[in-house]
């Protein structure tokens, strides 16, 4: 029997990286359901534009997810203007890709700071607000790369594995607390972050709206593990039942091993250059990415 869906109307939702991509689509979907939206992004100009498009009292606030004080100030101001935060969507992330041995340490550190520390900071700060109220929902945007190891994206995969593990552990700690958590694992999503990526045979590339709809459904039904598309969960289950040699052969057949390894550098150049400048004060005007959607 399908779970009865609960209303999200009136809920206060804070979204990191909400100015574009999955974050923007999620903000749009939730605003349509009557939620009050706080968009956190390093690119405040784009965030303000997105908030204006949403209407309904949506607000745009500056946010650097790698800075705990900035994250705390973001949530404080969201609560001052909109009321207690009911939902935090930890969506910010970057994905520079390339051969692991060629990756410079600054790139690795930037990915870990944004993709993992940003989620850690956000989750801790949200729990400090939600646990005393015995209510709230944290949504962590991971990736199907958090369930596999894809050549060309070793450090990215590491950060997403960490987000999946973090979400699993925190969920266990939150039993009977009234605070809920969801971990969202999309396949390749048609955002700038996925520019130049190859398709996986049998798994279609997603529109960001499809991920947003899955997030809404997870909030309405309190679903923890959110595969997008849902069919990916079955594929993962089958793959895990097969011995490693067979699993790797299946990955090659599905071309999963080429998704991040066989990219078109020209198609990714603009994104890679922007991701390389994903620190406050370094990004070109209108091109900040330290709160860029994860997939």
Summarize the structure.
The protein has 295 residues and is α/β, with parallel strands linked by helices.
Question: How would you sum up this structure, described in words?
Answer:
- The protein is of the alpha/beta class and 295 residues long.
- It has one domain (12-275): 3-Layer(aba) Sandwich (Rossmann fold).
- It has helices at residues 21-32, 44-54, 68-82, 105-130, 154-173, 208-221, 231-241, 244-253, 265-275, and strands at residues 12-16, 36-41, 59-62, 87-90, 136-141, 179-186, 225-228.
- A seven-stranded parallel beta sheet has the order 3-2-1-4-5-6-7, sandwiched between helices.
- Residues 281-295 have low confidence and may be disordered.
CATH class: Alpha Beta
Spatial separation of the terminal alpha carbons = 31 Å
Q: What would the average pLDDT be, to the nearest integer?
A: 87
Count the E strands.
7
Low-confidence stretches: 281-295
* Strand numbers in spatial order across the main sheet: 3-2-1-4-5-6-7
Kindly provide the radius of gyration, computed on alpha-carbon positions and rounded to a whole number of angstroms: 18 Å
Question: What percentage of amino acids are in beta strands?
Answer: 5-15%
Coarse shape: globular
Task: Give helix % range.
Answer: 40-55%
Briefly note the CATH topology name: Rossmann fold
Helix and strand sequence: EHEHEHEHEHEHEHHH
Going by CATH, what is the homologous superfamily? Answer: NAD(P)-binding Rossmann-like Domain
């Amino acid at each position: 029997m399908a779970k009865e869906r609960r209303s999200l109307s009136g809920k206060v939702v804070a979204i990191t990286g909400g100015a574009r991509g999955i974050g923007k689509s999620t903000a749009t979907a939730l605003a349509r359901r009557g939620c009050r939206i706080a968009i956190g992004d390093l690119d405040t100009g784009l965030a303000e534009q997105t908030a204006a498009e949403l209407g309904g009292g949506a607000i745009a606030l500056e946010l650097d997810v790698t800075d705990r004080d900035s994250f705390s100030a973001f949530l404080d101001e969201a609560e001052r203007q909109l009321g207690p935060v009911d939902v935090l969507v930890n969506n910010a992330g970057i994905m520079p890709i390339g051969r692991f041995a060629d990756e410079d340490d600054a790139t690795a550190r930037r990915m870990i700071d944004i993709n993992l520390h940003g989620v850690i900071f956000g989750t801790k700060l949200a729990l400090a607000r939600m646990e005393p109220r015995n209510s709230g929902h944290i949504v962590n945007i991971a990736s199907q790369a958090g369930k596999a190891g894809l050549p060309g994206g070793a450090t990215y995969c590491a950060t997403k594995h960490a987000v999946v593990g973090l979400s699993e552990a925190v969920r266990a700690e939150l039993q009977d607390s009234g605070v809920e958590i969801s971990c969202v694992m999309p396949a390749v999503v048609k955002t700038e972050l996925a520019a130049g990526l190859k398709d996986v045979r049998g798994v279609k590339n997603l529109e960001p709206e499809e991920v947003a709809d899955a997030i809404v459904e997870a909030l309405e039904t309190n679903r923890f593990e959110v595969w997008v598309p849902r069919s990916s969960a079955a594929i993962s289950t089958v793959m895990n039942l097969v011995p490693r040699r067979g699993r790797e052969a299946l990955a090659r057949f599905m071309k999963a091993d080429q998704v991040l390894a066989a990219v078109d550098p020209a198609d990714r150049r603009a994104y890679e250059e922007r991701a390389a400048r994903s620190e406050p004060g370094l990004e070109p005007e209108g091109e900040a990415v330290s709160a860029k959607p994860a997939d």
